[in-house]
Amino acid sequence: MRSSEVNYDYDESLPTDEASFGYVEDEFSTSSDLVDATFSVMPILLGLVAVVFVAVVIFIVYAQARNSRKIKSAGLDPITFETDLKTKLAQSNLLAPKQSLEAKLEELTSLRSRGVISNDEYLQARQDLLKGWGEG
Fold this sequence. Notes:
Shape: rod-shaped
């Protein structure tokens, strides 16, 4: 057989209908109804997730803007507010260890001896200290 010749001899026993060539008819489904239902609901779920995400971002931005305005109205810098607050707290007496009764009485005696407080103020402060120490 020459290369220019066309061979018209083909097997006529091959089926000619579409179903026998591997086409799947509608009545035969390869996937389950659950998978189909899941994929049909997926766009709705993704939309809800996107809406919730956007709502959370908007809330965070709103809360930060509101806090910033409150801090500015108090006369503080919103950017350094947290650091300023921590510094003030660290320098305050709130975090200082409690002095013993003896140390407080000694401090009062020192104040009286240096002339910072009078004898009457010393007696009153000593009485208040002893009274408060007994209650606390």
